[in-house]
Amino acid sequence: MIRVRFAPSPTGYLHVGGARTALFNWLYARHNDGTFILRIEDTDRERSTDASIDEILNSMRWLGLDWDEYHRQTDRTEDHLKAAQDLMDRGLAYESEGAWWFRVPTEGSTIVQDELLGDVEYANDHLKDFVIRRSDGSFIYHFVVVVDDADMGVTHVIRGDDHLNNTPKHILLFEALERPVPKFVHLPMILGEDRTRLSKRHGDTATLEYRDRGFLPEAMVNFLARLGWSHGDDEVFSRDDLVQLFSLEEINKSGAVFEDTKLHWLNQQHMKRADLDRLLDLIKPLVLDLGRVSDEMWGQAGNDRLKRGVHLLRDRCKTLRDLAVAMELLFPVPLNPVDDILVQSEQVPLLLAVAEALEETTPVDPGELENVIREVLACQGAKLKDVALVSRLAVTGRRAGPGLFDVFALIGAELVSKRLRVTAEGVAE
RNA sequence: GGUCCCAUCGUCUAGUGGCCUAGGAUAGCGGGCUCUCAUCCCGUCGACGGGGGUUCAAAUCCCCCUGGGACCA
């Protein structure tokens, strides 16, 4: 039975590098029907906060990384003391100036058998004795991790390779405590664009920030998984795909730069595949936040129409925020024209004719709309091209968007003709 | 400074001695489709850090150098 753990310190938000480590552990557990343990390493009481714990849990929940067991390190101080006392009793640790020191063998070497990197050998005389318990009674990180991993029966320690150099110490401790040594997998670091290990000064590194910026969790998971892991030439993976395909053998050994241009593309790919009702739920608060559409207006729009809107607009959006902005089209709110509308005088009668025709026939679907509009224009001796851009600008406030008849159908003949008239009459004055 | 890890297009990566005049993706650029934008499709730019070996054959194995990173001090 495979047991893995993710053990963050609650001293700030969960950054994307940590999220990637959590993800790899989670994937390994789920792929092997193992157990995924979340352990909050809050022994540093000075810097640990409940707010950070909440943030971490929310980040994990957002990404869909559910855990099977939850522990807080501070609940385990008695176990830590017991283990340390055991080492003292057996002469494997000693006291000096109030602190407890672990005795490291002066000869031989300790070999880290890493599943990814292979065997890494450390000469013991380089390691030197180290403190496991400070004179104030608090325990050193390296000691606590080992005791916890041992007690929790962790079989695979999957963590960042910044811990590789600590691992021989850990192995020595496992052996001294007479507990089985877990297997180790040291993942390459995630780097900032300056190729140093990702940290807060690199800007947007908080996991939840990506949620707030309008990324889908499955896109984030996909992106994070591909940072260091690959499966042939495949790029787009659902969460289920990843669980099914994930394996340690396909993890890369070199660090990866976190650059979110590809995340944008992946997000679009996942938006295209996402369930429409779900997308609606996700963007509704974003649309309301923009301040022009009320809850009532959203309700009146009707689910079918909203879904059609999402369906038409999502191909041109990279994020949920983009989609929310685009969705304002469906509502009778004041237009916010991106460009000034320059209407030529000969276009005025055409626009009015179209408006009139729409009022008379009130077509509903795009096909009907197209027939009506093309017919009117033909009668006037004009082509669609002659009014396409102006009418798009008049009706949507934008130069670009879905097919003209599709947007018009979406907005509704009534509002379309009204807006055409406003523009045409504005010129006539 | 000591110890350790890593090294393919700008970025993410495929590649485990011959299928590599190095493949995919993304970003950039160009084109097609079209009322526009996007999607989509096609094309294009673009990399094995350097030097030695081993081998009939090296991106792939070995050594050195260089570079980057991490941990400890």
Helices, strands, pairings?
Blueprint (H helix, E strand, L loop, with lengths): L2 E4 L9 H16 L3 E6 L9 H14 L5 E4 L4 H13 L3 E4 L2 E4 L6 E6 L3 E6 H4 L2 E4 L7 H11 L4 E5 L6 H10 L6 E5 L2 E2 L15 H6 L4 H10 L12 H7 L10 E2 L3 H13 L2 H14 L5 H7 L1 H11 L6 H8 L20 H14 L4 H14 L4 H13 L7 H8 L1 H16 L1
Parallel strand pairs: 1-2, 2-3, 9-10, 11-12
Antiparallel strand pairs: 4-5, 5-8, 6-7
Helix pairs in contact: 1-9, 3-5, 5-6, 8-10, 11-13, 11-14, 15-16, 15-19, 16-18
The protein binds one RNA strand of 73 nucleotides through strand 7, strand 12, helix 10 and helix 17.
Q: Could you write a compact summary of the structure shown?
A:
By secondary structure, the protein is of the alpha/beta class. It has four domains: 3-67 and 190-269, Rossmann fold, CATH 3.40.50; 73-187, HUPs (Rossmann fold, 3-Layer(aba) Sandwich); 274-330; 345-428, Arc Repressor Mutant, subunit A, CATH 1.10.10.350. It has helices spanning 16-31, 50-63, 77-89, 124-127, 141-151, 167-176, 207-212, 217-226, 239-245, 261-273, 276-289, 295-301, 303-313, 320-327, 348-361, 366-379, 384-396, 404-411, 413-428, and strands at residues 3-6, 35-40, 69-72, 93-96, 99-102, 109-114, 118-123, 130-133, 156-160, 183-187, 190-191, 256-257.
Question: Could you explain the architecture of this structure?
Answer:
The longest helix has 16 residues, at 16-31. Helix 11 packs across helix 13 and helix 15 (348-361) crosses helix 16. This protein has helices at residues 16-31, 50-63, 77-89, 124-127, 141-151, 167-176, 207-212, 217-226, 239-245, 261-273, 276-289, 295-301, 303-313, 320-327, 348-361, 366-379, 384-396, 404-411, 413-428; strands at residues 3-6, 35-40, 69-72, 93-96, 99-102, 109-114, 118-123, 130-133, 156-160, 183-187, 190-191, 256-257. It starts with a strand and ends with a helix. It has four domains: 3-67 and 190-269, HUPs (Rossmann fold), CATH 3.40.50; 73-187, Rossmann fold, CATH 3.40.50.620; 274-330; 345-428, Arc Repressor Mutant, subunit A. A three-stranded parallel beta sheet has the order 1-2-3. A three-stranded antiparallel beta sheet has the order 4-5-8. It has a two-stranded antiparallel ribbon with strand order 6-7. The mean pLDDT is 93. It contains 19 helices and twelve strands. It is of the alpha/beta class. The structure holds one RNA strand of 73 nucleotides.
